């Protein structure tokens, strides 16, 4: 276990290396930080930190840089994450609050998170398994066409046009719409198949073909959207980042949505802010990166995760503060819809 002085030296090395991109020497630490000891004592502490694997010397006669182990201790011992300014908080509220549907909310969130952190932003769509039916609408379009609209409490909107029906009567459509809403509103989407199984039998024989067609399309739409979806933003920021692995490896890993989903799923409790550093990431393409993630949801119900991917040399307090704030505001926006 490191004593407080060595922890202060490690913290100073991380902060300086993140700010300057240059290996940090003992004289620079003594000049820039009030550590209360001489450069010689700092040098001795740096030797001890290197022996324990928290820092390393990339070149002979060069200063030191943090290792993954050093970054991990730095993050674990953070007393606080960097809070956003009142102007930044207002900007987040205004920017996210102006979105009109879930797709735009997610698109704006990705853009915002990438701009705040200068990293690659990742936002997972709310899981279908954690969404409830808020409303079902049926709209007659023509004599043989009906549009079905399914709206969830998380803002998802599914629209499908059903063609080739027998002549559609307004009364039949309205009756079916009312029955669907009575049966489904408030139900988890995963419970929809069981909730509508006996519904056609409750209708007059002439209305059953319409009900069967609508229910078939409804269930198909749930199956097709079952796989989770990831949206990326800020990949152009990669050009300004330094990675120990090749940039191509990182880009190829980012293109694999399944890999990103698995990594987000591995990052612990969705209610917690989580940081995975370097080799802690299971996929080879992300072993030169750090991933900061947090869950977002409605109330105490987590729906999905968002986060950022960047080099291990990142501003952890600022990045963690931005990820946590955006996740909180996203949950508030969804809860208010």
UniProtKB/TrEMBL annotation:
Residues 34-62 form the HTH deoR-type domain. Residues 103-320 form the Heat-inducible transcription repressor HrcA C-terminal domain. Negative regulator of class I heat shock genes (grpE-dnaK-dnaJ and groELS operons). Prevents heat-shock induction of these operons. One of its GO terms (molecular function) is DNA-binding transcription factor activity. GO terms for biological process: negative regulation of DNA-templated transcription. Keywords: Repressor, Stress response, Transcription, Transcription regulation. It comes from Streptomonospora mangrovi. SUPFAM superfamilies: GAF domain-like (SSF55781), Winged helix' DNA-binding domain (SSF46785). The keyword Ion transport does not apply. Belongs to the HrcA family. This is Heat-inducible transcription repressor HrcA.
């Amino acid at each position: 276990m490191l004593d407080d002085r060595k922890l202060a030296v490690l913290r100073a090395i991380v902060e300086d290396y993140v700010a300057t991109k240059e290996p940090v020497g003992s004289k620079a630490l003594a000049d820039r930080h009030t550590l209360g000891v001489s450069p010689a004592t700092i040098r001795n502490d740096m030797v001890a930190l290197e022996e324990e694997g928290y820092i390393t010397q990339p070149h002979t006669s060069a200063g030191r840089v943090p290792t993954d182990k050093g970054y991990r201790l730095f993050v674990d011992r953070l007393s606080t994450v960097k809070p956003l300014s009142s102007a930044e908080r207002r900007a987040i509220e205004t920017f996210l609050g102006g979105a009109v549907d879930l797709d735009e909310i997610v698109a704006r969130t990705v853009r915002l998170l990438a701009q705040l952190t200068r990293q690659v932003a990742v936002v997972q769509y709310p899981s279908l398994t954690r969404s409830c039916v808020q409303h079902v609408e049926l709209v007659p379009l023509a004599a043989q066409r009906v549009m079905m609209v399914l709206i969830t409490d998380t803002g998802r909107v599914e629209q499908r046009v059903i063609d080739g029906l027998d002549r559609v009567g307004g009364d039949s459509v309205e009756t079916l719409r009312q029955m669907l809403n009575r049966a489904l509103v408030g139900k988890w989407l995963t419970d929809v198949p069981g909730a509508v199984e006996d519904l056609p039998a409750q209708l007059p024989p002439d209305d059953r073909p319409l009900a069967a067609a609508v229910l078939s399309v409804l269930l198909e739409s749930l199956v097709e959207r079952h796989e989770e979806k990831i949206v990326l933003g800020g990949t152009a920021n990669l050009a300004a980042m330094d990675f120990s692995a090749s940039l191509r490896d990182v880009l190829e890993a980012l293109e694999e949505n399944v890999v990103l989903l698995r990594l987000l799923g591995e990052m612990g409790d969705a209610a917690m802010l989580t940081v995975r550093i370097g080799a802690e990431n299971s996929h080879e393409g992300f072993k030169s990166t750090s991933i900061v993630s947090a869950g977002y949801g409605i109330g105490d119900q987590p729906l999905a995760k968002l986060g950022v991917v960047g080099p291990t040399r990142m501003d952890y307090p600022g990045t963690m503060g931005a990820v946590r704030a955006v996740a909180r505001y996203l949950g508030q926006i969804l809860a208010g819809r």
